[in-house]
């Protein structure tokens, strides 16, 4: 369809001179200059004729003004198109010089004849300008932030000696709303903790933050990041999604699971290499009313990949029976039952991964997720479930040693003082841990009487009675914890988010809410940083999980790189490109 048809019909120039009537059926419109009544009846031809004949100078001014506006609009559209093109090159890791490719320019000319593609140098400059604008935005947004959490993830290509790290920060603003901001993506000279820490510090400097103000880091368990957190003295929260995926990964090493996984992975590889058979199976599954995607190879680092692959295999199994070239991938009924059991065992783990990778998740949900998975697994009572249960308990025990996670749970009204989430520990111990995060000066309690001044003790009776006056006491964290425990014991609120709870109770618990603004700023996973390295610009499903269209990728790549990464950093990933 012609693009011009899609454009909104332009407003007639006559309405820049005449006053447009609300009623289109009106017969005449009064001229604002000569006061003549001009025939209208819903059409502008008579008005235009009057304007061009009787008021030529006014008409010329209107036309000139309109042409200037159109010119400015075209320049704006061209500028926007150039910026979008530059960003697509950056996020797609396309060398900037590709814009000068003759075939690419012919393609652009065929779809947009009026658009002239900028050269490589211009695209590089546009990316730099976009980066500078993003820095200004971040500096303004972060100028009053005193405590924040950082989320980071890395990508390495050992063959090309490339190491890249991303940085996001999160904090609760003055309205008690969580803000998660992308700060940057930088190449690192080496993958050690010193190099990584130096680059992350540089990114923070650019946006006006200081590493010393970082309260916690949420990331995977990479040794450079673990050591960096230890050296800098801030809390480290093991990314909840990565933690749960390690349970699946370790479970996949069990002999039975490993064997079934290899069989299904071979099936997925066969489909990816045989387009005709894949199309036949897709048509067959659709005919059978199955909505599941076909099993295709998934990257080893894909969270919950085992459950996804097993579930897809089982969904299309009956359809595969009717295709001659898929017979080798069928199994005995007893083996099929084992595959179903494995699928069902890891399903709760995958469900919790999907929950924790949402940007709205909280660190306080990590241990409850493990408790939920443990309870579900204990109900099965099979040999395989006992092996999975052992892996779950190991991860749960390790998480119970994390002071920040425990204190976040205490400040989450959904879990606080519930014994099943904390056993074998007690909430009294966690209350002691919480005092570590109390950095507020003592607050006077307005309900207490004030100590009498010395001038009031000028006679003997006043002096004697002064001994019975209450002395001024301070609102300390223990007082607030008692009130908080009492509130939850009598009427536990039903808010779905702990942040929402503290937004409404920050005036009642000033000290606890101040601690909550620090602890609850940390999400339950570093998924926001992990998504930075997904191919195809991080197209995600509503649940935050990677779209199935990415399932044929063989490995995680830097595809959705930094939207504001400098041109030099992106160009450094293309060692075979000439310097611009």
From TrEMBL:
GO terms for molecular function: DNA binding; protein dimerization activity; zinc ion binding. GO terms for biological process: post-embryonic development. Residues 9-62 form the BED-type domain. SUPFAM superfamilies: beta-beta-alpha zinc fingers (SSF57667), Ribonuclease H-like (SSF53098). The keyword Nucleotide-binding does not apply. One of its GO terms (cellular component) is nucleus. SMART domains: ZnF_BED. It is found in: Nucleus. Keywords: DNA-binding, Metal-binding, Nucleus, Transcription, Transcription regulation, Zinc, Zinc-finger. Its main location: nucleus. Residues 526-580 are annotated as: Disordered. PROSITE patterns: ZF_BED. Transmembrane segments: none annotated. Residues 543-556, 568-580 have a biased composition (Acidic residues). This is BED-type domain-containing protein. It comes from Caenorhabditis brenneri (Nematode worm).
């Amino acid at each position: 369809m012609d693009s011009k048809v899609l454009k909104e019909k332009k407003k007639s120039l006559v309405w820049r001179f005449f006053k447009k009537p609300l009623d289109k059926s009106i017969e005449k419109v009064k001229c604002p200059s000569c006061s003549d009544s001009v025939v209208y009846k819903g059409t502008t031809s008579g008005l235009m004729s009057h304007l061009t004949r009787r008021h030529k100078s006014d008409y010329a001014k209107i036309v000139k003004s309109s042409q200037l506006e159109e010119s400015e609009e075209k320049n704006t559209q061209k500028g926007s198109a150039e910026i979008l093109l530059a960003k697509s090159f950056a996020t797609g890791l396309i060398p900037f010089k590709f814009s000068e490719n003759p075939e690419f320019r012919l393609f652009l000319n065929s779809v947009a004849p009026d658009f002239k593609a900028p050269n490589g140098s211009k695209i590089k400059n546009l990316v730099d300008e976009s980066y500078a604008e993003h820095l200004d935005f971040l500096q303004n947004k972060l100028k009053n932030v005193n405590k924040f959490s950082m989320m980071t993830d890395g990508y390495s290509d050992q063959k090309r000696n490339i190491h890249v790290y991303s940085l996001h920060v999160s904090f609760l603003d003055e309205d008690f709303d969580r803000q998660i901001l992308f700060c940057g993506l930088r190449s690192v000279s080496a993958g050690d903790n010193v190099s990584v820490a130096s680059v992350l510090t540089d990114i923070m400097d650019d946006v006006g933050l200081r590493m010393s103000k970082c309260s916690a880091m949420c990331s995977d368990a990479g040794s450079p990041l673990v050591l960096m957190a230890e050296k800098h003295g801030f809390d480290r929260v093991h990314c909840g999604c990565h933690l749960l995926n390690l349970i699946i990964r370790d479970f996949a090493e069990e002999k039975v699971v490993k064997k079934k996984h290899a069989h299904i992975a071979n099936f997925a590889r066969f489909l990816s290499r045989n387009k005709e058979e894949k199309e036949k199976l897709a048509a067959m599954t659709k005919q059978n009313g199955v909505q599941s995607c076909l099993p295709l190879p998934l990257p080893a680092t894909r969270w919950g990949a085992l459950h996804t692959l097993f579930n897809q295999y089982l969904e299309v199994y009956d359809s595969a029976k009717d295709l001659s070239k898929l017979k080798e991938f069928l199994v005995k009924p007893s083996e099929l039952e084992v595959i179903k059991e494995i699928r069902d065992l890891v399903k709760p783990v995958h469900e919790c991964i999907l929950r924790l990778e949402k940007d709205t998740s909280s660190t306080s949900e990590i241990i409850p997720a493990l408790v939920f998975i443990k309870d579900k697994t204990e109900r099965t009572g099979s040999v395989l479930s006992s092996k999975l249960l052992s892996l779950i308990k190991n991860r749960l025990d390790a998480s119970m040693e994390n002071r920040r996670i425990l204190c976040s749970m205490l400040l989450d009204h959904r879990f606080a003082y519930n014994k099943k989430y904390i056993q074998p520990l007690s909430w009294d111990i966690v209350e002691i841990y919480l005092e570590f995060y109390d950095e507020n000066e003592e607050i006077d309690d307005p309900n207490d009487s004030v100590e009498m001044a010395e001038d009031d003790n000028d006679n003997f009776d006043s002096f004697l009675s002064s001994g019975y006056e209450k002395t001024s006491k301070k609102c300390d964290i223990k007082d607030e914890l008692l009130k908080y425990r009492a509130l939850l014991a009598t009427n536990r609120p039903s808010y779905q988010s702990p942040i929402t709870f503290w937004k409404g109770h920050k005036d009642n618990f000033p000290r606890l809410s101040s601690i909550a603004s620090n602890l609850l700023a940390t999400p339950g996973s570093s998924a926001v940083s992990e998504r930075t390295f997904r191919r195809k610009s991080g197209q995600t499903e509503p649940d935050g999980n990677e779209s199935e269209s990415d399932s044929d990728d063989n490995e995680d790549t830097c595809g959705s790189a930094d939207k504001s990464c400098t041109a030099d950093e992106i160009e450094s990933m293309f060692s075979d490109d000439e310097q611009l």
